[in-house]
Specification:
single chain, four-stranded parallel β-sheet, alpha/beta
Length: about 425
């Protein structure tokens, strides 16, 4: 038995390379994760093994080295850059006499700090409860004893069984609440599909600049910072594309390699916006030399949630840090595949808007429309779509308008807004 410290800020980090399993972890990213959680790193221990030790993960010799480092640095928590089994956590805590946290627990702690919305807090709580449900014993072996005392004597149930039952009840309640939230989100998605409003979802590795880019495109004020998982709660905003109408832009949680499966499952309702998007903007940190590895990690997460077949446009952000100029890159068919921008400097935002319009509204048409004086409602509709390129007043009180919009929107105008075929003059 040992007393668990309340602060948990002085942290000793343990990073291991496993040769036979091909498990290579990014040490710099691990340190950034610990820093994002508010830990004060007082030491770092690295090592290599062929395979993990089934009892202590790091082996008895390395565990003794960690124990001495904990005593010398007066560390309050030891954080492993790996997923530990419940028995490994329990054995390590008994040996080190301090709290032990694995990579999943570290990411869950960061998420718990960043959740702001009701839905986000529910999702984090669900992931945490599912994570600790198998770790109830840990250092508290006295929980295996049965309840005693007046009115509690007899077979009864152990305290551990009671805790497990209470956890299962709470998990069920949270899932029911999240199901209701998911139904509300689905209603919003159905309404957008009915109106045929495209949805563009921002995806990418954590700290790639998605929220900064989101704020720049939408004039929103979503929290953004140079830290991992600065954004947790999803946000939807309307973005007007001149001449094309508008799209709904979704800012989502950042991805990371070796993402805990509890988080993927808990945030499935939120990530559904990504699965049903018309276009994915994959934001990449151009200045980070590891961006190719991060892109592979993003691809793995997209495959796990079933969004890997959604059309994708790569956005290379932070070009100001590498001295590049904004530009578009196209493939052999002339389709835009990459956009190089800087969200901080507002460089290339017009090119990004053009790329989104080309990707989402690929069937763009430009035509002249002659509206009579009584067609004021239809004229207002063209302006609301941002489709008016130029306008000339007619001598009889009407308007001659050059409009640029998608072929789909043009059909909608004819069917729903009462545009008559004789008003359409075509190109001139």
């Amino acid at each position: 038995m040992f007393e668990r410290p309340q602060t948990g800020e002085r942290a000793l980090l343990v990073h291991l390379s496993l040769r036979d399993t091909g498990d290579s972890r990014d040490l710099e990213e691990f340190q950034e994760l610990a820093s994002s959680a508010g830990a004060q790193c007082v030491g770092l221990i690295t090592g290599q093994r062929r395979v993990p030790d089934p009892r202590l993960f790091i082996g008895s010799g390395k565990a003794e080295e960690v124990r001495c480092a904990v005593h010398q640095a007066q560390a309050e928590v030891v954080i492993f850059d790996h997923e530990l089994t419940p028995s490994q956590e329990r054995n390590l805590e008994a040996l080190l006499q301090c709290r032990v946290l694995d990579r999943s627990g570290l990411i869950l702690d960061i998420f718990a700090q960043r959740a702001r919305s009701f839905e986000g807090k529910l999702q984090v709580e669900l992931a945490q409860l599912e994570h600790i449900s198998t770790r109830l014993i840990r250092g508290w072996t006295h929980l295996e004893r049965q309840k005693g005392g007046i009115g509690l004597r007899g077979p009864g149930e152990t305290q551990l069984e009671t805790d497990r039952r209470l956890l299962a009840d709470r998990i069920r309640q949270i899932k029911q609440r999240l199901h209701r939230v998911d139904k509300q989100r689905d209603q919003g998605r159905q309404a957008r599909r009915k109106q045929e409003v495209p949805t563009v979802s921002l995806v990418g590795y954590t700290n790639a600049g998605k929220s900064t880019l989101f704020n720049r495109l939408t004039n929103a004020h979503v929290y953004s910072a140079n830290q991992l998982f600065a954004t947790l709660d999803p946000t939807l905003r309307r973005v007007d594309l001149p001449g094309m109408g508008y799209v709904i832009l979704a800012d989502t949680v950042g991805f990371i390699s070796h993402l805990p499966h509890e988080l993927v499952a808990a945030f499935r309702a939120t990530l559904q916006e990504t699965c049903e998007a018309s276009l994915l903007l994959e934001v990449i940190d151009t200045a980070d030399p590891r961006w190719r590895d991060y892109e592979a990690a993003v691809q793995n997460v997209l495959e796990s949630i079933g969004a890997h077949e959604v059309p994708r446009l790569r956005v290379f952000n932070k070009i100001d840090l590498v001295g590049e100029e904004p530009r578009l890159e196209r493939d052999g068919q002339g389709q835009v595949v990459d956009v190089h921008v800087s969200a901080v400097d507002d460089a290339g935002m017009d090119l990004l808007g053009q790329a989104i319009a080309e990707s989402v509204f690929s069937d763009t048409v430009r035509t002249w429309i002659c509206l009579p004086p009584e067609a004021g409602r239809q004229r207002a509709r063209l302006f609301s779509l941002g489709a008016v390129v130029q306008e000339h007043h007619q001598p009889g009180g009407g308007w001659l308008i050059q409009a640029q919009t998608s072929h789909r929107h043009l059909q909608q105008l004819c069917v729903r807004e009462g545009f008559k075929q004789e008003w359409m003059l075509g190109s001139r």
